[in-house]
Design brief:
The chain is mainly alpha-helical. The protein has three domains: 1-59; 61-173, DNA polymerase, domain 1, CATH 1.10.150.130; 181-339, hpI Integrase, Chain A (Orthogonal Bundle). Helices cover 47% and strands 11% of the residues. It has helices at residues 39-53, 66-81, 85-94, 109-121, 126-145, 154-165, 181-192, 201-211, 215-218, 255-262, 275-289, 298-309, 314-321, 326-330, and strands spanning 2-8, 14-24, 27-36, 226-227, 232-235, 249-252. A three-stranded antiparallel beta sheet has the order 1-2-3. A three-stranded antiparallel beta sheet has the order 4-5-6. Helix 4 (109-121) runs antiparallel to helix 5 (126-145), helix 4 (109-121) packs across helix 6 (154-165) and helix 12 (298-309) runs antiparallel to helix 13. The N and C termini lie far apart (72 Å). 29% of the residues are buried.
Length: 343
Amino acid sequence: MATITRRKNAAGEWRYTAQIRIRRDGKLVHSEAKTFGREAEAKAWKRMREGQLAQPGALDKGSETVGDLIRRYVDEFAPVMRWRRSKTADLKRLLTHDIAGKVARHLTSQDLIAHVQARIASGTGPATAGNDLVWLGGVLRTARSVWGMPIAAHVAEDARDACRRLRLVAPSKRRDRRPTQDEIDRLLAHYRAAKRVEIPMADIIEFAIASARRESEICRLEWRDLDRASSAILVRDVKHPTDREGNHQQAKLTAAALAVIDRQPKGELIFPYNSKSVGTSFMLACRMLGIVDLHFHDLRHEATSRLFEAGYSIPEVAQFTLHRSWKDLQRYANLRPAKLVLR
C-alpha cells in the first residue's frame, strides 16, 4: 500500500518520499506522496495517512488528489488531443512532487506557490517552474468544467500572478547563441575522424545548418516524403505551441540540404537514428572539444540566421523553418551584420 524511496536532491542531500497507492478491483483509486528530510518523518507520515485513509468514507468522491486528476487527465485527453509526448512527460513528472498528494478540492494558491518555491530551491529554472503552473491550471480547469468537480480552478492563476510578482517564474530567456565557423569546423573534423561511426553526425550537423530542422524532425524524415522536383519535403509532427502531434507541413529545402540527403542510404527513414542519441552525441563532442554552451538546437538558430543573411525575406524564410508568425521566427534571427547580403 505504501513505499518509501530515497534519492538525493540537487544539493546532494538525501530526501525520503513516502508514496501511498490504493487500488480497488485492480484500479488505482488514490495516490499521494510527500517528501521529507528524514526517513523517520516519512515513516511517521506514512503510518498516519494509512490510518486516516482506512477510515470509512475516506476515499469517497471529493477526496481525489491532484495526482488522481493528473492521471485521469492524461488517460482521457492525451489520446484525443494528440499532444506531444513532452507534455505527457511533464505532467507525469508532477506526480513525483508533493503537490500530487494534495486533496484537489482543498488546494490553495499557497500550495502551488510552495511547490514553485521548492522547485526553484532544487535548481529548477523559473521558466520550467512556470510551466508546472500552466499544466496544473489546465488539469484543474478540466476537473471543474468537464468532470464537474468542486475545484477552485482560479488558484492556479492566482499562484501564477503571485509568482510573477515575486519573480519566481519568468518566460524562457531568448537564446541568441550561434556557433562560430571554427566551432562548426572542429565538430565536423571530430566526427569525420571518428573510427566507429554509428550515427553520421557530420552529415546531420550539416543538414541541420542547411535545413533549420530540429533533431527530432530530422530523425523522422521519410524518403517517400521527399519532393525533389520542388526541393521540398513533408515534415511530420512539426512542433508548434499548440503542442499536438499530427501537424504535418511541407518545408522548402536548400541545395545544400538536398546534397546531404543524397549521401544517405535508401530506406524508410532518411536519418534512421534516435534523436536523443543525436543530441547526446553532440553534447559529448562539444564537451570533449571544449565548446561551451552550445546546444544542437542552436544549429536551427544558425540556419535561420544564414537564410536571412543570404537575403531571403520573412515569408521565404518561413517556408524553410515553418514558423507561423514573425514573433516566433524573430527569436531565431540572430544576424551578423558583416554576413548580410546587400541588395
